[in-house]
Each structure stands twice: as structure tokens, then as C-alpha cells.
Amino acid sequence: MPSAEAFLEEQESAEFGELRRAHRSFAFPLTVAFVLWYLLYVLLSNYAGDFMGTKLFGNINVALVLGLAQFATTFLIAWLYSRHAARKLDPRAAEIKSRLEAGA
User: Fold this and answer.
1) Per residue in 34-57, pLDDT tens?
2) Distance (Å, rounded) from C-alpha 94 to C-alpha 65?
């Protein structure tokens, strides 16, 4: 098992900084976008009742479509993050892990 000093040294390395940046540059913008999208839905539900009640077809109204779109967006973001992690984060993390284990 690597020592605490080895972990601290790795944490300060440029490669670990790139790993953090790769995670943050993907996760933070999507988190902000999703929260804004969710708040828009809540605000529309609260203050634009007539608009949200607009029937699109049959008993399906704007509120239902936007509510279901919230679920679709959640699954889309999870899928995109999974792809991003597999391509950009996991290889870098595995390299850092193997380097730490080799030095232990």
C-alpha cells in the first residue's frame, strides 16, 4: 500500500491535475445546465400554469412532456458521463493507480 506521502505527491502532480480538470470540465457545466433546466421546469410549473396546461394531443400536455424530458435528460447525462469517464478519466486514473502501486 502506498504511503501517505506518495498519495500527497501524486495529488500535486501535473497528471493528477489533468485528471481533475478533465472531470470538472465535463461534470460542472452539465450539472449547472441540468439544474437550470430543472429550475425552468419548476418555475414554469409555478408561474405559467396556462402554458404548462396546454394540450399537445389527447390528454398529453406541455407539463407532462417537459416532466418526462427531465427523466430523459437524466439518463442522457448519465450515459454521456459514462462514455466520458471510459474514454478520458478511467485510463488516466488507471495509470496513476498503477504508478502508485508500483512505487509501494
Assistant:
1) 999 999 999 999 999 999 999 999
2) 41
